[in-house]
Amino acid sequence: MSSPAKPPQNPQAIAIAKAIRHNPLLKQRQGLLNPVKKIDFFRYKRVIRALLSTEYKSKQQRSPILPVIANEQDAMKYFIEVIKAGLVYPVNKLEVSVAREKNLPVERGFPNLEIDPKATLQPDEYYLWNYEIPNPYALLYGVLFLAAVFGLILFPLWPYKLRLGVWYLSMGCLGLLAGFFAMALVRLVIFCATYPILSPGFWLFPNLFADCGFFESFVPLYGWGNEVLDPKSAKLQEWKQKKVQKAAKKEKKSKEEEAPSGKEILPSSDKKVTTTGRKVLLEEVEE
């Protein structure tokens, strides 16, 4: 099956597609086409809601090329223009069993799609996008890339101090990279050494290779076995809460130790404080 053709030039249809391409009311998903290309698709009833949304109306007021859409009939009319322009295509979402019968790769969360030659405009009919909004920074990125390549080619002509600074910077980056791999090797050695005697094994920085932020990769400091804590999991949040409570108890204990020796804090619920010892000391001073 060939990929959808490139859309012909239709300024109004392109403007409509651009206005609703990333509208949240579409509730777009990604599916597989031809047979592993991931592409966005949506239901027909969702695009009608997007064309009647306040977001589209606000864009229409700022762009004269966008048509006024007052009701569902207008939305259907202009969506047909988008279909004729080749910016969207009707598709069928295949069941897993059907996809396997057709020897298509099955990937969880990405249903297989098949282009339908007819558009029936039914509420639950699926359509895929054959249009992407051009990146306004693509030209700038291209110019910067060419400038960087040209600058690297002229590296021998750079001033000596600048070349020396680049050399030190590159050595520093290589040192950090080598330290990271050394740490990964050390944690693996520790796990292999502790697994036979302290099963299920000790991990240093269990989230080091987890799908999380840089600083979250080093939290917690250690773990056991395959129990790698997700930085957003409830278990790690509980671990952080226990750590805070432990610090609070330690601070409370230190404050109690710093309290005057004449005062005694009772463990009763009303937390009454007796000052008998303090009175004795004052009487001795008065005498």
UniProtKB/TrEMBL annotation:
Residues 247-277 are annotated as: Disordered. Keywords: Endoplasmic reticulum, Membrane, Protein transport, Translocation, Transmembrane, Transmembrane helix, Transport. It is found in: Endoplasmic reticulum membrane. It is a multi-pass membrane protein. InterPro entries: Sec62 (IPR004728), Sec62_asco (IPR011553). Its main location: endoplasmic reticulum. The chain crosses the membrane at residues 138-160, 166-190. The keyword DNA damage does not apply. Belongs to the SEC62 family. This is Translocation protein SEC62.
